[in-house]
Write a structure and sequence with these properties.
Blueprint: H1 10-20, H2 30-42, E1 46-49, E2 55-59, E3 71-76, E4 98-101, E5 104-107, H3 114-128, E6 137-142, H4 150-154, E7 164-167, E8 175-180, E9 182-191, E10 194-207, E11 212-213, H5 225-239, E12 243-249, E13 255-256, E14 260-266, H6 271-289, E15 297-300, E16 304-311, H7 313-325, E17 329-333, E18 341-353, E19 356-365, H8 368-385, E20 388-395, H9 405-418, E21 423-427, H10 433-437, E22 444-447, E23 452-453, E24 461-463, H11 464-479
Parallel strand pairs: 3-6, 3-7, 7-22, 8-21
Antiparallel strand pairs: 1-2, 2-6, 4-5, 5-24, 9-19, 9-20, 10-14, 10-15, 10-16, 11-13, 12-14, 12-18, 17-18, 18-19, 23-24
Length: 483
């Protein structure tokens, strides 16, 4: 018996739990892709597994639905795989420890992967049930959405017949997403000079922050552990000859980092002032974040004498100046859609290794020219500091479609079932619809999903009643013929 076996709808939660048993973080998707291919083979479905490990599966229309327009169901198989520091799960090789608390599903010590495992589970449950009535179903499950949408970029969809697509990668029930921002990943590399140095080695940790999704929650202006560690390092280097030995923070460019840490070398005589500076920065930031991210704290490890190859004090100061000069968070709000973030960036990964400081950003904007201007700004700041940038995973935004028969049909059914109209929104987070729309002629698309909280974090949850309602809605939608 599975942990979720008593939950309804049973087949949806059965497949969701099966997925959580398979490691499927971004870049580690071969096993989950093979699982999906085996699913299709066992049921005699037409399927394609391409070289990237994307999966397309097709189920023909039920009797009486042959003349209805085909429907594309779309999601991605990879998840943002993050865990708590004390969690012993190897997320590259082990499954998750799924648990239930009240109406919420979560994973012990790790992210859950509801984004976008629930899309895969819905799709498999629909394909698996021969009692349902539906038009031709064309299921598209892509790889590595969370790290640049590489699967969507490389997939061939020429075999599809449908032009109506339901994207199942949204996290708020009752909201129909019809447009999203474009984005890119920017990796900044700053070479640093090193030397052998002996002195007092001290660990510093920035922690206690909430984190979150860099698209869906960037407007909440929560603390970014990487940015705050840079601010702390700058405050130290302004007063003391500190040398950087190690630095690491964040696990994904599109997740707001909750924790970051550094190992620093300093002189023993400076230890008292070192502690004074730490406490001063901690007090300042706590005051700034009191109502937005009240758990912020700075923790130090036990110092000890040692010798290591570290960054020179001069270049440590240059690295700190670089970090504090980098832009971060919301850059502008939309003038056309009140409350919508137009342009932002998130310093999601920060590390020092092999003589260089590496800073990885997720850049987003609903205005293409603003996106590229922000990328250029990052390039200019990095170049002035003596480094270089690499841009990958550049994807277009998804433009709003004024005339949408699919949206009209979905909205009418939603109001009929729930007695209220759905919210129709644009979002700042990235979806694959823009890329896929360039591959499917005249694509008519709406994105929906059940309620999830704190995606991309170890606090992620998936709401059980919401999963059931969205399933019932999907079944009714597919069985409803066009007027």
């Amino acid at each position: 018996m599975g942990v979720l076996s008593d939950l309804e709808p049973k087949r949806v939660f059965y497949f969701f739990e099966e997925i959580t048993k398979i490691p499927h973080g971004s870049g580690n998707v071969e096993r989950i892709s093979d699982y999906l291919a085996d699913f299709a083979k066992e049921r005699g479905l037409f399927y394609i597994q391409d070289d990237l490990k994307n999966i397309v599966m097709v189920k023909e229309a039920s009797p009486g639905y042959e003349e209805e327009p085909a429907v594309i169901l779309q999601g991605h198989m990879d998840m943002v795989a993050v865990k708590k520091p004390d969690c012993d799960i190897d997320m590259k090789n082990q499954g998750l420890r799924v648990a239930v608390r009240g109406d919420e599903i979560y994973a012990e010590g790790t992210s859950l992967g509801g984004d976008d495992g629930i899309a895969v589970a819905y799709s498999l449950a629909l394909l698996d049930d021969d009692t349902l009535r539906h038009p031709r179903l064309e299921v598209v499950i892509t790889v590595d959405e969370e790290v640049g949408m590489d699967g969507a970029r490389g997939i061939d969809l020429s075999m599809l017949t449908g032009s109506r697509m339901i994207n199942l990668d949204s996290e708020e029930e009752g909201i129909f997403t019809v447009s999203c921002a474009g984005g890119a990943r920017v990796k900044c590399r700053l070479p640093l000079h090193t030397e052998a140095r002996e002195g007092l080695m001290a660990e510093v940790f920035v922690e206690g922050l909430q984190g979150g999704h860099s698209g869906a929650e960037i407007h909440k202006e929560r603390g970014n552990a990487n940015c705050l560690l840079g601010r702390l390092l700058y405050a130290l280097t302004e007063k003391l000859p500190v040398s950087l030995c190690k630095m690491e923070g964040g696990l994904a460019d599109n997740a707001i980092p909750r924790e970051a840490g550094a190992l620093l070398m300093l002189e023993e005589k400076d230890m008292e002032e070192f502690e004074t500076i730490l406490r001063a920065v901690e007090e300042q930031v706590q005051g700034e974040l009191a109502t937005r991210d009240g758990g912020f704290r700075i923790r130090t490890g036990r110092p000890g004498q040692g010798t290591c190859i570290c960054v020179t004090a001069e270049d440590t100061r240059r690295a700190a100046a670089f970090l504090i000069a980098l832009p971060g968070g919301v850059q502008s709000m939309s003038a056309d859609m009140p409350g919508l973030v137009e342009t932002s960036l998130n310093l999601g990964i920060l590390k020092y290794e092999d003589g260089a400081l590496l800073a990885e950003f997720s850049v987003r904007s609903s205005v293409e020219s603003a996106k590229y201007a922000l990328i250029d700004r990052l390039g200019a700041v990095t170049a002035l500091a003596g480094g270089s940038n690499t841009v990958t995973g550049d994807y277009p935004g998804w433009k709003y479609r004024k005339d949408s028969p699919l949206r009209d049909k979905m909205a009418a059914l939603y109001e009929e079932m729930y007695g209220a109209a759905p919210k129709v929104e644009a979002i700042h987070a990235g979806l694959e619809c823009g890329i896929l729309g360039s591959k499917i002629r005249n694509l008519d698309c709406v994105s929906i999903g059940p309620r999830m909280n704190a995606i991309h974090t170890t606090e992620e949850t998936l709401n059980i009643p919401s999963v059931k309602r969205v399933w019932e809605y999907l079944v009714r939608l597919l069985e409803r013929k066009d007027a």
